[in-house]
């Protein structure tokens, strides 16, 4: 079962770097999905899907690498930033520090609204333009210095809220298909007292996770595990139903 989970995740993460999905082997993905969920999925049902929950992040090399880079950036800032007024690397960008100061200790809904508005105010810049690599995922410090694309907005919101004390279990980065625009996309979903709220760089306000009927989740992830969503846009309907019935 562990091998199947890893393989299914590798297929998803390789295919879904917020890019084209034309050549994803749906039959192979369906075959690799576990016959039983590895654990009961915690709350945050999203987009009307059934979910299969996997502990661990082994298949998601890009996400794991980002979290390691983020940890190193934080450590470098703590050890080497000699002035609280400096914003040059390795010191944190000014906006990071200001947002943490402004929203620390505030009610969760106020934090979500404020962080969402602040991050969405940044212009969209593709990873290809910024890094010469369309698959690059940015840390928050990179985002504040260079702006970014959809997953970078979601990641920055996630890690800002983690710094403000929102628990990992209450949040997920969701990689999905927007069937209206026919593009892949990423958002952040947060559980607030049993209600799933979505922070989307394409929406000016925090909204219900079910607000956009054109969103179909591929997978969601946080710092401790990931979820396969069914029915899945990568699988024909019949295969999706077969996996969901296991």
Structure report:
This protein is α+β, with helices and mostly antiparallel strands and 246 residues long. It has a single domain, classed as Roll (C8orf32 fold). 40% of the residues lie in helices and 18% in strands. The protein contains nine helices and seven strands; from the N terminus they run ααβααααααββββββα. The protein has helices at residues 2-15, 26-32, 61-80, 94-103, 108-120, 127-131, 140-146, 150-163, 237-244; strands at residues 50-55, 171-178, 183-192, 195-199, 207-208, 215-221, 225-230. A seven-stranded antiparallel beta sheet has the order 1-7-6-2-3-4-5. A hairpin with a 2-residue loop joins strand 3 and strand 4. Helix 5 (108-120) runs antiparallel to helix 8 (150-163). The two termini are 13 Å apart.
Please tally the helical runs, counting DSSP H or I stretches of 4 or more residues: 9
Widest sheet: strand order?
1-7-6-2-3-4-5
Q: Domains counted in the coordinates: how many?
A: 1
Radius of gyration: 18 Å
- Give the H and E element order: HHEHHHHHHEEEEEEH
Binned strand content: 15-25%
Structural features:
9 helices; disordered C terminus; 246 residues; C8orf32 fold; alpha+beta; globular; 7 strands
């Amino acid at each position: 079962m562990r091998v199947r989970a890893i393989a299914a995740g590798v297929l998803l993460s390789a295919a879904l770097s917020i890019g084209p999905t034309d050549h994803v082997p749906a039959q192979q993905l369906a075959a690799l999905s576990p016959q039983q969920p590895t654990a009961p999925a915690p709350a945050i049902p999203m987009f009307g899907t059934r979910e299969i929950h996997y502990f661990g992040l082994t298949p998601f090399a890009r996400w794991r690498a980002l979290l390691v880079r983020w940890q190193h950036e934080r450590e470098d800032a703590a050890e080497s930033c000699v002035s609280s007024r400096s914003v040059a690397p390795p010191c944190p960008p000014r906006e990071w520090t200001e947002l943490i100061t402004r929203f620390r200790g505030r009610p969760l809904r106020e934090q979500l609204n404020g962080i969402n508005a602040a991050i969405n105010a940044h212009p969209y810049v593709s990873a290809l333009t910024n890094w010469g690599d369309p698959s690059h995922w940015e840390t928050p410090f990179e985002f504040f210095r260079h702006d970014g694309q959809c997953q970078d907005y979601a990641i920055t919101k996630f890690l800002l809220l983690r710094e403000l004390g929102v628990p990992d279990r209450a949040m997920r980065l969701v990689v999905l298909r927007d069937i209206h625009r026919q593009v892949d996309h990423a958002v952040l979903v947060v559980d607030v007292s049993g209600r799933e709220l979505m922070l989307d760089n394409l929406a000016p306000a925090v909204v219900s996770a079910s607000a956009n009927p054109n969103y179909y989740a591929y997978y969601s992830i946080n710092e401790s595990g990931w979820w396969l969503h069914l029915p899945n846009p990568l699988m024909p309907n019949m295969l999706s139903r077969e996996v969901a019935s296991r």
